[in-house]
């Protein structure tokens, strides 16, 4: 007797006709034709069951603050930072908590159950850290929230930031962040990478730095981050986020840098929606795309997780909480349209990001947490193409969100009465 049985599911690895049995919040069996009773049975009908979506790069302290105190007229990264600097002194814990929890409602409805959020620690009041630590506890039953101590203004650029970052870690923020390219000089940026990696090594923590989020091909702090990763023995615990300067670097230097990252066991977290929106702003034409070298990183064996970064905040007026929007943009922006490419990008919003965050019990194997999403699509390529309805969102074997199937009614003589978007892929 199982608590939950999902019948006739397609899995991300290409297997079809699979049943998934759940007992006590854990996956107990994954095989075809499970002959057993269950308290609840879900007929997948050949549709895709995926592990939860995972967002390895987000700013939950800023989410849903679009228009406060005003709109970003230029649409640039620097105006967004300036706007956040205006808003920050007015932030209250109550407002931060309310916006963040509302966003988590949206995220869960999209099958997103784990988020790594950077928390700005540039204001020594640390109201952002207090608020997000409270949010972490509120949403813990249904969403895993991992927090990064992030000095948005630069580790060395403002008074009290060095001390504030340490205090945030003492409070329970569990990842060390940084932004070396925003320090006043390249030398300060390199010093900040060293100092922050030393803190992570001393405390046994992970590192996730905004690194070279610029169009400048000479912004090369990724190299410093790789070197300090090896120096402090942080292999497998360090991620570089954005890395957009790499889209402007010459190929010879990139041929040196990518092996250094692979040697250091670094992960990369591009953010396709934001990178496409914010980068290349000084270009006329030709105009750079703004994304780092995702296919080349994957070829080198560098773990790549795709992040959403922002939803309706000073930097980005768009966003839906849907990681498949992120993968969909990546398909187009870095021209990864093959079947294998789309599988790799689906992994980048699921299993890769889970590994980068160090999630335990994640996946669709026996013994994993029974956290799953049933999508109105038949394979991962179709999931990215359609960004389909999440028919069921399951947490520890319990349905916590569901959406009716998307079906259009046609009133056309001689044509079918209904259109199901999941039925249009060749071979379906």
UniProtKB/TrEMBL annotation:
GO molecular function: cytosine deaminase activity; isoguanine deaminase activity; metal ion binding
Gene name, Swiss-Prot/TrEMBL: codA1
Residues annotated as domain Amidohydrolase: 40-400
Keyword Metal-binding applies: yes
UniProt keyword terms in alphabetical order: Hydrolase, Metal-binding
CDD domains recorded: Bact_CD
Protein name per Swiss-Prot or TrEMBL: Cytosine deaminase
GO biological process: cytosine catabolic process
Record SUPFAM superfamilies: Composite domain of metallo-dependent hydrolases, Metallo-dependent hydrolases
Pfam families registered for this protein in UniProt: Amidohydro_3
